[in-house]
Write a structure and sequence with these properties.
Strand order of the largest sheet: 2-1-5-7-9-11-13-15-17-19
Shape: globular
Number of strands: 19
Strand content: over 45%
Helix content: 10-25%
Order of helices and strands: HEEEEEEEEEEEEEEEEEEEHH
Length: 312
């Protein structure tokens, strides 16, 4: 096994997944720091990558009418303890094309690592794009993550994104996503993050429903324990008839954790309808007592309740 393949395997071992990158029908792009360790495309999908001094610049284009049967695996990892990884990415999904992007961002040894992503995603008429971003961090909290994306969702197009920390501590996460949705389109943005110790979670998600019958949902599920902090700013605007939207933010506080939730809805058309709800509080006592009555310790019961909040 070559050193590059060994490194790819090592990175994916941290995620607990086997993407089967030897499958000729599975497209992938694997990056460690600023090095391209592996890349494979399939008919209809064009990936161009340029290595930068501190990251990569990638252009991904899916041709009109192409439907990807299998998810495209993107892996942005950094195994050293210190450094900066900058990801510049442009994704263009042409008319009536469909793709699912599964991104693993792996920083298992981070002591002082910054991961900075700037993405532009354009989804053509009738296209579909799912972008699932799953993170693996070190237990030391020495990671700073800055994902930023500008997304255009065309007529009848669908965009869904989820952000999830599956292992390790948050460190600092500062999410900044903004979408614009045209007629009859669907947009869903979801984040699920649990912070502890001195972790900091910042989320800014904005959706603009500009076309008639456009639908959108912003969902944040956050838990903060010890001295962790969370600030969630979700804004949904509706400027056309028959647009429908919902903003939902739920946060659980334990110990000295602090949380701020700012749901904003802005409706600029009398035939649009947007709702919101936000809830911040400690673990529900009734749930806690029920689980402890069944033999769980208080810590295990709290963990189970928080995992339940963060689950799908």
């Amino acid at each position: 096994m070559t050193s590059q393949l060994q490194m790819i395997k090592q990175i994916y071992d941290y995620t607990g997944t086997d993407p089967n990158l030897k499958d000729p029908d599975t497209a992938h792009l694997v990056i460690n720091g600023n090095r391209v360790l592996g890349m494979q495309s399939v008919p209809g999908l064009n990936i161009i990558v340029r290595e930068l001094e501190d990251g990569i610049d990638a252009n991904i284009n899916l041709a009109e009418g192409t439907v990807m049967a299998k998810p495209v695996h993107l892996c942005f990892g950094m195994l050293p303890e210190k450094g900066i990884q900058r990801i510049i990415m442009k994704v263009n999904i042409e008319k009536e094309a469909r793709i699912s992007l599964l991104a693993h961002c792996v920083f298992p040894n981070a002591v002082d690592v910054s991961h900075i992503m700037n993405a532009e995603i354009n989804i053509g008429e009738g296209g579909e794009c799912s972008y699932f971003e799953k993170h693996v961090h070190s237990l030391r909290g020495g990671i700073k993550v800055y994902p930023k994306a500008i997304v255009e969702v065309g007529k009848r197009a669908v965009f869904k994104t989820e952000f999830e920390l599956i292992k390790g501590r948050v460190g600092l996460i500062d999410i900044d996503y903004e979408t614009t949705s045209l007629e009859n389109s669907v947009m869903e943005m979801t984040s699920r993050i649990s912070g502890r110790d001195d972790d900091i979670i910042k989320i800014r998600e904005v959706g603009h429903l500009k076309g008639e019958y456009a639908r959108g949902a912003l969902t944040s599920k956050i838990a903060v324990r010890n001295n962790a902090r969370a600030e969630v700013y979700n804004k949904l605007t509706a400027s056309a008839a028959y647009t429908r939207g919902h903003v939902d933010c739920k946060e659980i506080l334990q110990d000295n954790g602090r949380a701020i939730a700012v749901p904003i809805v802005e409706v600029n058309h009398s035939k649009a309808h947007v709702t919101h709800e936000a809830a911040i509080g400690s673990v529900d006592n009734k749930q806690l007592e029920t689980l402890m009555a069944r033999g769980l310790s208080e810590d295990d019961a709290v963990e189970l309740i928080i995992n339940g909040l963060l689950s799908h």
